Amino acid sequence: MKASSLKPQASSRKLHKSSDQHPVSRIDSHQHFWRYDPVRDAWITDAMNVIQRDFLPDDLAPVLKKNHIDGCVAVQADQSGTETKFLLELADQHNFIQGVVGWIDLRGDDLESNLEQYAVHKKLKGFRHIAQAEPDGFLLQDDFSRGIESLKNYGYTYEILVYHHQLPDALNFVKAHPDQAFVIDHLAKPAIHSQEIVNWTAYMKAMAQYPQVMCKLSGMVTEAHWQQWKKEDFTPYLETVLECFGPDRLMYGSDWPVCLLAATYEQQLGIVEAFISTLSETEKQQIMGGNAIRFYHL
What we know:
Blueprint: E1 27-31, H1 57-66, E2 71-75, H2 81-93, E3 97-102, H3 111-118, E4 124-129, H4 142-151, E5 157-160, H5 167-175, E6 182-184, H6 198-207, E7 213-217, H7 235-245, E8 250-252, H8 265-275, H9 281-296
Parallel strand pairs: 1-2, 2-3, 3-4, 4-5, 5-6, 6-7, 7-8
Helix pairs in contact: 5-6
């Protein structure tokens, strides 16, 4: 099905607009900051030497400005309370960082007290655990599920970061928490490099049946061949999520600076903008900012 033939699904809230004359703000819903530490950041291997350095707001701000992006959501890359504090401090110092997705120990005995303490930070919008690195069944553990149940009491979102082969657990996870706002990061990391799509498609269609789930158009270039990808490689995956979720449940994210492993900021942005070019202006504005504003209450 072509993107231009799809119609948006009903949205529960109206999109925010800066004024009647101006379009919705353009938001990068997924990027990271870090002060590079070779021990803590051991996941950044020598094959990723292009990102073995600091990436901070002063590095990103001119990139966003050049590409007419009005703001961003900073997402955790390290699983620690220190990381959440670091991102919140950056957000307090830089207005263009409009939201933070931090990390919290959802299985900890002190979860409720930590959530209460975080409540004063208005830019803290939700949390993420790097579940892609966890064994099968992690998302379905009783203590993790109890932690997820606490998030909705504070209005926090939760980011589902999994590989495509972990989607069966992710689907059962979503089913178990019908009142929690979720977003799938990076299209659930399909195997774009090998063009496998059948099983991933089936599970993404199933995930989209749950209205509390959104999906980020992010992280695609690093799931393809880093130096050999073509825009056409991503089309089947983008068509699938557009058909499944509709334009009111998708949001653009760069995954900067991780995207630099395979593309410039402009290149990864161009993939999304080219794909949505046949949609209506309203639909494009939803994907490029309106949905992030609504989901994160930016």
